[in-house]
Design goal:
Helix content is 19%, strand content 36%. With 267 residues, it is of the alpha+beta class. The protein folds into two domains: 2-111 and 250-265, Roll (Diaminopimelate Epimerase, Chain A, domain 1), CATH 3.10.310; 139-248, Roll (Diaminopimelate Epimerase, Chain A, domain 1), CATH 3.10.310. It starts with a strand and ends with a helix. 43% of the residues are buried.
Length: 267
C-alpha cells in the first residue's frame, strides 16, 4: 500500500499472514522514486500476540528506525477502518502505542514519553540536552529516534540541503539524528521544516513534530499543546502526562503488487 501523512509518504507491506523479509538493498530499491515506488519510510505490519499489530520501520537508505509517527497514524487509521474499531494498540521498537480515532475522524497516536536524558536519546557524551554545545544551541530530544531542534527567526530561510547532512552526522549523535528548524508563529503555533535521518528533506515528520513541540515547551516558547505548520500541512501535538499525542490527516493512496521480475532483480 502507498500511504502518506501530510506528504510524508510510505510504502506499507501487510505481513500479518506471512513473514516478509525486506533487505536494506530491496528497501533502497523500493524507495527509488524513478525505478521503484518511492517513500520516506517503509513500514511492515506484522502480527502480534500482545497488541493489534507490530510495526517495523525502515528509512529510504535501508537503515532501521524504532519510530515513525506519521506511518503509525496511517496504519492505525487503516486498521481501524478494517476492524470498525475506534481504538487499538500497536507495538514498535519504541514500545506499545495507543491509537484512537477522534470524533472529527482524525487519527491520534500516543507516541510515548519523550527521552530527555543524554544517554537515552542517545548522545555521545553528557551534555545539557536543552541547549547543546553546537552553534545555534539546539535542543536534543528522543522519541524512539534522536532529534536535534534549532529555533530560528525564519525557518523558511534555512538552507536545509547544506545544513541537514552536517547536523545529521554530527559527532554528538552516534546514531545520526533527525534535524528540525522551527520558528514561533504564536503562543501555541510553530512553523517547522525537517531533515530526516536516512531520508533527507521531507514534507512532514510525526516524530520530529513531537520532538519539536517538546523542545519548544521545555524552552518556554509555547505551551504543551501546539499546532505545527509543516511543508505538507498542519499537525496537532499535545504533550500530556501519559505521553506525546499526535493528531493529523492521513491518506491511503493505492494498493499494488510488486512484479516477480522486479523482486528477482532486487533480492
Amino acid at each position: 500500500m502507498k500511504m502518506h501523512g501530510l506528504g510524508n509518504d510510505f510504502v506499507v507491506i501487510d505481513a500479518r499472514s506471512r513473514k516478509v523479509r525486506v533487505s536494506p538493498g530491496r528497501a533502497m530499491a523500493l524507495a527509488d522514486r524513478h525505478r521503484g515506488v518511492g517513500f520516506d519510510q517503509l513500514a511492515l505490519i506484522e502480527s502480534s500476540d500482545i497488541a493489534d499489530a507490530h510495526l517495523v520501520f525502515l528509512n529510504a537508505d535501508g537503515s532501521t528506525s524504532a519510530a515513525c509517527g506519521n506511518a503509525t497514524r496511517c496504519i492505525a487509521d487503516f486498521l481501524m477502518d478494517e476492524t470498525g474499531r475506534h481504538a487499538l494498540t500497536l507495538t514498535t521498537d519504541r514500545g506499545t502505542l495507543l491509537a484512537q480515532r477522534r470524533s472529527d475522524g482524525l487519527c491520534s497516536v500516543n507516541m510515548g514519553a519523550p527521552q530527555l536524558d543524554w544517554q537515552d536519546i542517545p548522545l555521545s557524551q553528557p551534555v545539557d540536552t536543552l541547549a547543546l554545545p553546537i552553534e545555534g544551541a539546539p535542543t536534543a530530544t528522543g522519541m524512539g529516534n534522536p532529534h536535534c531542534t534549532f529555533f530560528v527567526d525564519d525557518a523558511e530561510a534555512v538552507d536545509m540541503a547544506a545544513l541537514g547532512p552536517v547536523f545529521e552526522h554530527h559527532p554528538l549523535y552516534p546514531e545520526r539524528t533527525n534535524v528540525q528548524w522551527a520558528s514561533v508563529i504564536g503562543p501555541d503555533h510553530l512553523r517547522m521544516r525537517v531533515w530526516e535521518r536516512g531520508v533527507g528533506p521531507t514534507l512532514a515528520s510525526g516524530s520530529s513534530s513531537c520532538a519539536t513541540a517538546v523542545a519548544a515547551a521545555r524552552r518556554g516558547l509555547v505551551g504543551r499543546s501546539v499546532r505545527i505548520t509543516l511543508d505538507g500541512g498542519e499537525i496537532e501535538i499535545d504533550w500530556r502526562e501519559d505521553g506525546v499525542w499526535m493528531t493529523g490527516a492521513t491518506a491511503h493512496v493505492f494498493d499494488a503488487t510488486l512484479s516477480p521480475a522486479w523482486l528477482e532483480a532486487h533480492p
